[in-house]
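Chapter review: from sequence to fold.
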Amino acid sequence: MIRVLLAEDQAMVRGALSALLKLESDIDVLGSAADGEQAWREIQRLKPDVLVTDIEMPGLTGLELAQRIQRQELAIKTIIVTTFARPGFLRRALDSGVSGYLLKDAPAENLAEALRTVHRGGRAIDPQLALEAWSDADPLNDRERHVLRLAGEGLSANDIATQLNLSHGTVRNYLSEAIGKLGVTNRIEAYRLARQKGWL
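The token string follows.
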């Protein structure tokens, strides 16, 4: 049996995924969680074989859950099921140790097959997205990404400097590097483009 934990903040989607997987004779849905923190507690309590999670959730994101699983070297595979058809998200997911990345508009039977593939040690990645991910590399480093995300949330350079314990000049340098790398004219355009590509 493939022992599965579901993490999805939308109750209807969570219920539908659970009902769908319970139809499979070789898959056991151990439980589900409505946010990332609850999912992390359930991972430790239930010790599933596979975590099926959305990316955007309250508390911890699906990527942050995958990173924790990877850091703690838990024998749990992660499959992301999301609406985000963005190559940048896929690249970050793979860097976080994710074994599967499926879009929510994929045929329902793809999820059960992906679970079997991942459980056997393989990978299950949406093929079109995989092609795009490798042709469109993320030019930002972690610091630039973090500073740009905060700028996009409306924080001034001074506020960002205070929050990250950096000098005002360092924050301005990170922002101007990000703007230059993305080939835009200001931080708002940089933020929008990086979000669109899935790099933030």
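Two observations follow directly from the output. The two ends are 36 Å apart (CA to CA). The chain is about 55% helix and 15% strand.
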